[in-house]
Amino acid sequence: MPAPSEARQPAAGQRATVGLRERKKAKTRLAIQRHALRLFREQGYAATTVDQIAEAAEVSPSTFFRYFPSKEDVVVYDDYDPALIASFRAQPAELSPIKALRRAIVEVFSAMPEEHVELENLRGKLLVQVPELRARMLMQIADSIAMLAGEVAARTGRDPEDFAVRSFTGAVVGVMMAVVLRAGDEPESDYEGYVALVDSALEYLESGLPL
């Protein structure tokens, strides 16, 4: 009889099945979002329905709602967050949190496929320009601070609720939001320029915000 710890471990075949299922779910989620963003670009956010998105992505409306609770969520969802977190964690330990974050942002978004860049640029503009999406984005600031605080705390060996950690992450999210709002209001802003602006904003924060 296997030891209790061994009995709880899924077999290799089971792990492969779970991995395949998760990859299929991620592929479906991405397809729904990409088709939705394309339709928003072609006919406008307000004029696009969930049924139209589902039809374009070749899924049922009920499947759409299994992945995204609402039409707003299909824009708010950011599938690059996991990659950004993984890159942040992989940065050399001797780097300060802000240097590690700057490197992670450049690494992840510089590797973004060209076809995704245009859609990500559109997603950013929608988040700023559509009133209900802008409100939703601003409501998520607390979640963004909490997520980043956990990563910074792990990197620095502090508690996520440490005042310094919370102040630092609040400042980081604040300068990044300033860039997001500025880029979204500029009709001709490009994604490459946006990423460079984010890095400049973080560099400015790193320098102590001199005025």
What would CATH call the class of the largest domain? Mainly Alpha
- Average pLDDT over all residues: 86
Which strand-content bin applies to the residues?
Answer: under 5%
CATH superfamily of the largest domain: Tetracycline Repressor, domain 2
The structure class reads mainly alpha
The CATH topology name of the largest domain reads: Tetracycline Repressor, domain 2
- When the domains are counted, the total is 2
Radius of gyration: 20 Å
- Residue stretches low in confidence (pLDDT < 50, at least 5 long) are 1-7
Gross morphology: globular
Put simply, the count of helices is 12
Along the chain, the helix and strand elements come as HHHHHHHHHHHH
What is the CATH architecture term of the largest domain? Orthogonal Bundle
Textual characterization of the structure:
There is one protein chain. The protein has 211 residues and is an all-alpha fold. The chain folds into two domains: 11-69, Arc Repressor Mutant, subunit A (Orthogonal Bundle); 78-211, Tetracycline Repressor, domain 2, CATH 1.10.357. 76% of the residues lie in helices and 0% in strands. The chain has helices at residues 4-7, 12-43, 50-57, 61-67, 71-76, 81-90, 97-110, 114-129, 131-139, 141-156, 163-185, 191-206. Helix 2 (12-43) crosses helix 3 (50-57) and helix 2 packs across helix 8 (114-129). The radius of gyration is 20 Å and the shape is globular. The N and C termini lie far apart (69 Å).
